[in-house]
Amino acid sequence: MKRKMIGALVGAAVMSMATGQALAQKAPAAKLSGDMVKIGVLTDMSGVYSDLGGQGSVTAAQMAVEDFKAQAKPSWKIELVYADHQNKADVGSNKVREWYDTQGVDMVTDVLNSAVALAVSKVTQEKNRILIDTGAASTRLTNEDCSPNTVHYVYDTYALANGPGKAVTKQGKDTWFFLTADYAFGHSLEADTTNAVKASGGKVLGSVRHPLNASDFSSFLLQAQSSKAKVVGLANAGGDTINSIKAANEFGLTKSQTIVGLLTTIIDIHALGLPTTQGMMFTEGFYWNLNNETREWSRRFFGKHKKMPSMLHAGTYSAVMTYLKAVQASGTDDAATVMKKMKATPINDFFAKNGKIREDGRMEHDMYLVEVKKPAESKEPWDYYHIKAVIPANEAFQPMALSRCPMVKK
Q1: What is the value of pTM for the model shown?
Q2: CATH value of 158-285+368-392 in 3.40.190.10, 3.40.50.970, 3.40.50.2300, 3.30.70.20
Q3: Quick one: which of 345, 352, 361 has its CA closest to 408?
Q4: Residue 16 has pLDDT above 90, yes or no
């Protein structure tokens, strides 16, 4: 009898251990550190790109945190911090290192400026955190400088170049000259547009490079004018694009040459006005007036920021929500676990439909070739675009077959 009882007790203990092991295997890999998720928005708060990202990115991230709390009601806390990287790689990398080492930041986003983003990506991998870059454009982030800890979310120079590079050249405007910001972003954008132009049967007659936040574009534009190219491609962004277009109009370039802003956003069009920008074509990643879903979110954003969102602002909201949902689903803020969950989960929101994060870290989604309306065609404030074409996700971004990312299996 004693032997039967002992056997029964041992059997029960073994079953209990097995059940416990099974439950442990289903449980989250780790608890949230400090019972909190901390997100850092690193952006340009005061410089040439501040309208493109800046306070608008902080507002978008705050909206995402508030919406996630209201919808998911997490048991853990969420904190948001932000800082100005001043468009300096050392300032940006030092700030995120401080965030990771002393403030417990789990994920950093925006990081508008390619030189800053490349430096921040290295620190993020070293510290095993997550960077979801919504602001920088250089394809190096998913090519030779790719990282298992970095996602490139909104746009890149391949996507920005592809639409206008092909469309404008095929219209017969087949000779190009580039005005290029002299750092990683501008170099990548010029190179990718050159490839698109040549693939469409066009020629590049030359280029000139200008410093970031240039004060005077006259000498650069005179070189573009003397090239006799049919198209002057602006491989710059933000204030540099706005000032380039203003100067091109003052010098009369627009009478004989077509100006193509390769990273132009609705913020730039609003600053310049439709009389100056009508007929311009470029690639966008988001348009507030696309459908009911984009309009609803954008009007909420406008109520807080008093401007309609750039694609970077909309993308920052989407990126923060994507990250928080992955943390919730994983039950952990462990970088590798959260990244795996994000890559396994399709992104479906007002910013992207059937978006996906690829093996190289590129978030693939549809892009839009837009043409700026004439003043008489605009029906309300900020109604600026004709959507000329939807560029499907698998065509908008560099094919995986061309990837130079060491993580990609070939």
Answers
A1: 0.90
A2: 3.40.50.2300
A3: 361
A4: no
